[in-house]
Design a protein that fits this description.
- GO terms for molecular function: flavin adenine dinucleotide binding; glycine oxidase activity.
- Its EC number is 1.4.3.19.
- Keywords: Oxidoreductase, Thiamine biosynthesis.
- It holds the Pfam family DAO.
- Helix content is 30%, strand content 26%.
- It is α/β, with parallel strands linked by helices and 363 residues long.
- The chain is globular and about 65 Å long.
- It has two domains: 168 residues, FAD/NAD(P)-binding domain, CATH 3.50.50.60; 133 residues, D-Amino Acid Oxidase, Chain A, domain 2.
């Protein structure tokens, strides 16, 4: 029997497994499909909430810690696996910011190097970006190529003797003895752990409902597109009017994204494609000259205010949750997993765990 059984093989589940294994714990990770192929793959990889000053303090606390963790994590995984997660700290340009005063006040409070810049500065940093007289610049923010991050995490876990990966195993129900959870039942048979952690993303509410736990997490679809351009056409993340473009080193430029509350539906449609293309070209007009190479959708684990649920599940022994990160699963993953692992191993928590607890926040 493993010390920990983790349900869900996205970045939250895999980072949890990595940290527990680093601490010498035996871990089994069970995933209904392939690790890293749902929301972790579908996102854009910006290592920050889109407009961080518009989020609650608990989210800012997690994102600030995670932002500092990604460079080291990326280098570690590259060294250990040979897979480069492509962490790029090129800064972030915000165009047409309406709440500039709020943003600058937030930056002063958080100690962030955010400053007002003019159209000449924007043109110098990103010659292909649309002109903007109301722009902000944050030089410390970065992005990571999330599909490669997931590949690197999976490769590292596969090489660790403390970790057992069980892919293609959908959890059917929990195994319980009274009010104690001892494992899960899958079509291929039972899996057991001394403690069970649910990191099931958009699917977590349905699983916990089998225990009559009403976690307010639901799937929110996001569609994205990617242009194939020459490398260097765009060098850094640019946001404008709630939409963004994210460059990759090979010239791929991602653009997103939609917010659609329509259940477990990952289909794409022509209307969203047209809107995403239009907004991307409004950010970087030169993108109109390049083809849309990819169009896809993923399901975010939406929660009431975006603050994740991290901690023990009330009413059940040895059962824990780390879910409900909404648009910021990748952004918050290093900190939120570290916070839970601290609690599981009895270590001093890196930040106050109270705002993330399930007590008082269940539907």
């Amino acid at each position: 029997m493993s010390d920990f059984l983790i349900i869900g093989g996205g970045v939250i589940g895999m980072m949890t497994a990595l940290q527990l294994a680093d601490a010498g714990q035996r871990v089994t990770l069970v995933e209904r499909g392939e690790c890293g192929q749902e929301a972790s793959w579908a996102g854009g990889g910006i290592v920050s909430p889109l407009y961080p000053w518009r989020y609650a303090t608990p989210i800012s606390q997690l994102s600030r810690w995670s932002e500092g963790a990604y460079p080291t994590l990326s280098l570690r995984l590259w060294e250990e696996t040979g897979i480069d997660p492509e962490y790029r700290q090129k800064g972030l340009l915000y165009l047409n910011v309406d709440d500039e005063a709020k943003a600058l006040a937030w930056a002063r409070t958080m100690g962030k190097p955010l400053k007002r810049v003019d159209s000449d500065f924007v043109a110098e940093k990103e010659p292909q970006a649309a002109p903007s007289e109301r722009a902000l610049w944050m030089p410390t923010l970065g992005s990571i190529r999330n599909p490669r991050l997931a590949q690197a995490l999976k490769a590292r876990l596969s090489a660790m003797p403390e970790v057992t990966l069980r892919e293609g195993r959908e959890v059917q129900r929990f195994i319980r003895q009274g009010s104690t959870i001892t494992g899960v039942e899958t079509a291929q048979g039972p899996l057991h752990g001394e403690r069970v952690i649910v990191c099931g993303g958009a699917w977590v509410a349905g699983l916990l409902a089998t225990l009559e736990v009403a976690l307010p997490v639901r799937p929110i679809k996001g569609q994205m597109i990617a242009f194939q351009t020459p490398p260097g056409l765009v060098s850094r993340v640019i946001l404008k009017d709630g939409r963004y473009v994210i460059p990759r080193a090979d010239g791929l430029v991602l653009a997103g994204s939609t917010l659609e509350d329509i259940g477990f539906d990952k289909t794409t449609d022509a209307e969203a494609l047209a809107l995403l293309k239009q907004s991307a070209e409004a950010i970087v007009p030169a993108l109109a000259g390049y083809p849309v190479a990819h169009h896809w959708a993923g399901l975010r684990p939406g929660s009431p205010d975006g603050t994740p649920f991290i901690g023990a599940v009330p009413g059940w022994e040895r059962l824990y949750v780390n879910a409900g990160h909404f648009r910021n699963g990748l952004v918050l993953a290093p900190a939120s997993t570290h916070l839970l692992v601290d609690q599981l191993l009895g270590r001093e928590a890196l930040i106050d765990p109270v705002p993330y607890r399930l007590e008082g926040r269940l539907a």
